Amino acid sequence: MMSKSGIQTAGRASPGNGSAAPPERIELSEEDKSKDAFFVQLAGIAEAMIGKHGKDFAMGTLVLTARFIAEGKPLTKPAAGDS
């Protein structure tokens, strides 16, 4: 079965004939659709970083970003003249 985040999970087989049950259709909320879109964007960025600089750079960058978020640090520098 496919979860709403797109991760494959084990599904239940239907009793009797041994075949898998058809996948369930889950209607995503607008919030879940938005989160999925961000995850797709993030995956694309991660793949680009891996392709250009390798897995260690991509993982380090993502961990550092998570740390900045957890600590409430800004992720970008303000433009000149912004306060």
Which helices and strands, and how do they pair?
Blueprint: H1 30-53, H2 55-71
Helix pairs in contact: 1-2
Describe it.
With 83 residues, the protein is mainly alpha-helical. The protein has a domain at 30-71. Helix content is 49%, strand content 0%. It contains two helices and no strands. The protein has helices at residues 30-53, 55-71. Helix 1 (30-53) packs across helix 2 (55-71). It is elongated and about 65 Å long.
Structural class: mainly alpha
Average predicted local confidence, pLDDT: 84
Number of helical segments?
A: 2
Q: Summarize the helix and strand pattern as letters.
A: HH
Question: What percent of residues adopt helix (DSSP H or I)?
Answer: 40-55%
Beta strands, count: 0
* Span between termini: 49 Å
Give the strand content.
Answer: under 5%
- In terms of per-residue confidence, which ranges show pLDDT below 50 for 5 or more consecutive residues? none
If you compute it from the alpha carbons, what radius of gyration comes out, rounded to the nearest whole angstrom?
20 Å
Largest sheet: none
Shape: elongated
What key phrases describe this protein's structure?
single chain; 83 residues; mainly alpha
Summarize the structure.
The chain is mostly helical. It has helices spanning 30-53, 55-71. 49% of the residues lie in helices and 0% in strands.
